[in-house]
Amino acid sequence: MCGIVGYVGGQQAAPLLTEGLARLEHRGYDSAGIAVVGSAVRVVKRAGRVQELVGAMPKRIAGRTGIGHTRWATHGPASDVNAHPHTDATGTVAVVHNGILDNAGALRRRLEDAGVELASDTDTEVIAHLVARSEADTLEAKVVEALAVIEGTYGLAVVHADFPDRVVVARNGSPLLVGVGEKEMFVASDLAALVRHTTTVAHLDDGELATITASGFTTFRADLTRTDTSAHRVDVDPSAYEHGATGTEPRMHTEMLEQPASVERTLRGRLDERFGTAHLGGLGMDPRELRAVQRVKILGCGSAYYAGQMGAQLIEELARVPADAEAASEFRYRDAVIDPDTLYVAVSQSGETVDTLLAVEEIRRKGGRVVGLVNVVGSAIARACDGGIYLHAGPETAVASTKAVTTMFVGFALLALQLGRVRDLSVADGKRLVAGLGRLPEQIEDVLAGEDRLADIGKTLARAESMFFVGRVRGYPVAREGAQKLKEISYRHAEAYQMSELKHGPLALISPDVPTVAIVPDDELTDRNIGALHEIAARGGPLVVVTHPGVDLGDLVAERIDVPRNEKELDPLLLTIPLQLVAYHAALTLGHDVDRPRNLAKSVTVE
Ligand code: F6R
Question: Which residues is 517 bridged to in the sheet?
Fold first, then answer.
């Protein structure tokens, strides 16, 4: 949430900063701004998108050092004055900040009592005043002094008119990376802003600070002692990041269409056809350790949590190990009992979601073993886990998660397969699933090829103010994910329910104005599910049924969406994809910006 960029080097900073911000806009898009250090610190900031900031930029804003920010509002509404960077009264210091200061109220009062006039409603502004009021000799020491009175989370970057050759950054709970160039250095909250310039990066740890100058960087702790954080080359394809800044097609659409390739990448090198199992070296667990696992507990947020529910079902079915998923955002607050025989699995696209990260840290503090299913390599969650499975979905920048969710499902299938094959899952069943996983990319193509029809269904659903998504057992997390996609980007009310629970209350809401999207795969529960559809139809509820070819829906009047058959355990993946497209087209019909839905941002790094 919120994006930070910074630059020191031989080039003019302003265009580099705005270009970096455009690449980070998915992280927050209600306002943006930059500060450039030339003969003085100059700040330009605006409510609205980065494009509006670029439009407002004066012709000449010279300086080879600068910082920039794109904001997702926490303290105070999106306005010019609340946009970052924030400065002290004299404009000597400028600060950009991700995260939330818990004691901002007290610090604001203290500053006001000392005669400081605060210009904005933000928590961040206090940092600028604190740095400016420090009498320390160096910028590093001034920042450290300010941080000493701050409580909360931050990734922040500071520039100062008296130290025009440097940017000082600090991290506590919000990611920051230093990018190493040729006689120039970068800093950013996300690799996406760096890859065009460099893929040699250093990840800062919590509690760490860094100074970047044109000639290099140094890292240190709050007592000003040096740390030995070094830069390394990350194995990413910079072209994979290009679309976000330049493309006209919504990023969400591109990402949905990338799913055959992303699923193939998740599978690559991990399937063992001969023994019907998976190889997951990154888990760092030998067969004995895998066998010793008594339970699996999956933790994630939002769509990652729903993918986790799909994963728990897979693990119970294939490995016959009790498994469940819980929202990490709840888990971390309930002083959970940590069981040494449970394998905890943290699932996250960004690897930054603060609730998931704090859940991981809590488990490890209490002696539990956590592995990660994470997309972003080297991210905080990936680094906090004991081992893991990288998803290899490629960069996902649309706020609504699509290709990450389907690769999470595949990651769980691989884990379930491996856990199953060290137990009682037969070679024959293992081979059956390996073959099924191998078929997925092509079958995803088939589903995507039906986009025109799914667009029509999306248009029809967009007319309804409110709707249900229902499913049973394997179908229920699919329904939850379908409802989530629809509400995020179309702003229609979509409620997911277990098919079996409808008659215990919500059936009262069914009417011709309230459609139901039902997940009805061809499996051992099909008849039960069709029974529930009749109950909905009998009350005049319009139905959209996601199912398999040949499932006899009898005389139900329903729109049906057929997805290809695979092994029934793998059904959730192919059932999920049409719901992404339906949501996407519903949102387009309603004229929404699908990549930047209101009130949301990618990567929830605040509590
Ligand atoms: C939904 C969505 C969010 C994320 C959630 C977790 O489309 O994008 O619900 O799934 O915020 O994010 P990660 O996976 O980055 O931990």
Answer: 469, 544
Short-list 264, 30, 104, 175, CA closest to 606: 175
Q: Which of 45, 297, 485, 602 is catalytic?
A: 602
Give 524 Cα–ligand 1 centroid separation in angstroms. 31
Cα four-point dihedral sign 455, 457, 462, 463:
positive
Q: Report d(CA 399, CA 295) in Å as an integer.
A: 32
Separation CA 472–CA 475 (nearest Å): 5
Residue 407 near ligand 1, beta carbon < 6 Å: no
What's the CA gap between 492 and 587, in Å, rounded?
9
603 lines ligand 1 (CB under 6 A): yes
- What average pLDDT values come out for the chain (607 residues) when binned by 10 residues? 92 96 85 94 94 90 96 83 94 94 92 94 94 97 96 94 97 92 95 92 95 97 96 86 68 96 95 94 93 97 98 98 97 93 97 94 95 92 94 93 98 98 97 98 98 97 97 97 97 96 90 97 95 93 96 88 97 98 98 89 74
Q: Residue 72 has what pLDDT?
A: 83
Tokens representing 320 are: 């016959």
Q: What integer pLDDT is reported at residue 73 of this predicted model?
A: 80
Position in ligand 1 atom list of the atom nearest CA 349: 14
3-class DSSP state for residue 67?
Answer: strand
Pocket test for ligand 1, best of 353, 406, 596 (most atoms within 8 A of CB): 353
Q: Determine what percent of the chain falls in helix, strand and coil, rounding each to the nearest 5.
A: 40, 25, 40
Collapse the DSSP code of 172 into the 3-class scheme (helix H, G, I; strand E, B; otherwise coil) and give the result. strand
Query: Is the beta carbon of 583 within 6 A of some atom in ligand 1?
Result: no
**2 assigned to active site:** yes
What the block records as the tokens of 237 is 């394809």
Instruction: Tell me which of 2, 142, 403, 485 is the catalytic residue.
Output: 2
In the prediction, which pLDDT does 245 show? 44
Backbone angles phi, psi at 47, to 5 degrees: -70, 150
**Phi and psi of 209, rounded to 5°?**
-125, 165
The C-alpha atoms of residue 556 and residue 5 are separated, in whole angstroms, by: 55
Q: Ligand 1, closest atom to CA 300?
A: 16
CA–centroid distance, 607 to ligand 1, in Å, is 14
β-pairing, 185-188 vs 177-180, is: antiparallel
- What is the reported pLDDT for 243? 62
Task: Of 509, 560, 508, give the one whose Cα is nearest residue 530.
Answer: 560
Q: Answer yes or no: are the C-beta atoms of 24 and 192 closer than 8 Å.
A: yes
Task: Mark out the alpha helices in 114-226 (DSSP H runs).
Answer: 125-133, 139-147
The H helix count followed by the E strand count for the chain is 19, 26
The predicted model scores a pTM of 0.85
Distance between CA 159 and CA 149 in Å, rounded? 19
339 class by beta-carbon count within 10 Å (0-12 exposed, 13-18 middle, 19+ buried): middle
Phi, psi of 31, rounded to the nearest 5 degrees: -165, 165
Which one of 303, 332, 399, 607 would you pick to mutate in the ligand 1 pocket, going by the greatest count of ligand atoms within 8 A of its CB?
303
Distance CA 562, CA 548 (A): 5
Q: C-alpha angle 531/537/540, rounded to 5°?
A: 160
366 is catalytic: no
